[in-house]
Amino acid sequence: PLVLGIETSCDETGVGIVRGTALLADAIASSVDQHARFGGVVPEVASRAHLEAMIPTVDRALADAGVTLRDVDALAVTAGPGLPGALMVGVAAAKAIALSLGKPLYGVNHLAAHVAVDQLEHGPLPKPCVALLVSGGHSSLLLVPDVAGDVRSLGATVDDAAGEAFDKVARLLDLGFPGGPVIDRRAREGDRDAIAFPRGKYDDGTYDFSFSGLKTAVARWVEARERAGEPVPVADVAASFQEAVVDVLVHKALRACRDHGVRDLLIGGGVAANSRLRALAQERCDAAGVRLRVPRPKLCTDNGAMVAALGAEMVAAGVAPSDLTLPADSSLPIETIRV
Ligand code: ATP
Ligand code: MG
Ligand code: FE
Q: What EC number is given for this enzyme (predicted)?
């Protein structure tokens, strides 16, 4: 099926078009530059930017795919979780297009879409797989028997999300926003063993994460240096902080695989773009005999193709479409894959 997917849960206006598991277009307009001076996404600014970018981004995706709206078999849209006002723009647009074309609409879960997107790159997902979902707003470990019908939460962060920790640490190092890409870059010149930062909940027997203690430890360490009048070795701090985050993530993800007898691990979400996370996960998966799947970085951060991919999977699986009264649900639970 030809499916058009719309994503507006945060600061990316994404419109993707897929045919089954083939990616035809992935158009994105980001308002990230408008948020940079605030050090984080400003919801009202994001909503307004979605409103302005929506139609041009739909047009660009159609042109890139070489199709017209009439060719589309079904629509999919992120119904949650995300910023309420931002979600509403995408959901309203998707409803209008579905209504005008008389085509089915699937309101889907953004987090499940971060998992489903990998099919566009590596083909059908093994059933079951374990998914580590790490982004600006979420850090979860999922058991995924079927991404279109059955996703179960094993654990999640009890405080900050992994991406949020990257963003906050980048802010305290004056590296700008968003923090993930710049810390990733600066860490390459640093020593990841330079500073022993804490690994929260490392062996606590749960699949939960905690990153706020780590963030505080980095802040205290930097403050102590500044108080002593010594320069802050930014690359070493970035590398050591990053290592603490990815060490815990990979450790818990592989334990989830082992405990559940699952041989396939998928990593998704914006933080999955991190080069050290990708390298360490590959190293430890090879040692554990677990197959690793990580989409290319552009598919890890928010985009419309992931939403289209999940919609196409639902069409193929015979899932019933949503009712056109579907809501935008800012706190949609991960187990609710389709509203
Ligand atoms: P959510 O899916 O929770 O709604 P989100 O909307 O914030 O998340 P994503 O694009 O999935 O959006 O993730 C963005 C996050 O990913 C930001 O916190 C950013 O710092 C982080 N990030 C992006 N690239 C990297 C990288 N190379 N290393 C580490 N973190 C990264
Ligand atoms: Mg973003
Ligand atoms: Fe996301």
A: 2.3.1.234
Q: Is 114 annotated in some ligand binding site?
A: yes
ipTM of the complex: 0.96
Cα 11 to middle of ligand 3, angstroms: 10
CB 313 near ligand 1, within 6 Å:
no
Strand spans (E) along the chain: 2-7, 12-19, 22-30, 74-80, 105-109, 129-134, 139-146, 150-156, 264-268, 291-293
Beta carbons within 10 angstroms of residue 233's beta carbon: 17
Structure tokens at 133: 């979902």
Among protein residues, the one with the nearest Cα to ligand 1's atom 27 is 274
φ and ψ of 27, to 5 deg = -90, 135
pTM of the model: 0.94
Distance CA 233, CA 271 (A): 23
Give the start-end residues of each E strand in 48-128.
74-80, 105-109
pLDDT for 284-298, tens place per residue? Answer: 999 999 999 999 999
- Please say whether the beta carbons of 83 and 43 come within 8 A: yes
The model's pLDDT over 18-61, given as tens digits with 9 standing for 90+, comes to 999 999 999 999 999 898 888 788 999 999 999 999 999 999 99
Q: What span, in angstroms and rounded, lies between the C-alpha atoms of 294 and 306?
A: 13
Token pair belonging to 311:
């919609």
204 CA from centroid of ligand 2 (Å): 31
Q: How far is CA 252 from CA 72, 135, 144, 188, in A?
A: 40, 16, 16, 24
Please choose from 7, 8, 10 the residue to mutate so as to test ligand 1's pocket, defined by most ligand atoms within 8 A of CB. 10
Quickly tell me which residue has 């309420």 as its tokens.
84
Contact indicator for 250, 284 with CB cutoff of 8 Å: yes
Instruction: Answer for the pair 61, 46: CB distance below 8 angstroms, yes or no.
Output: no
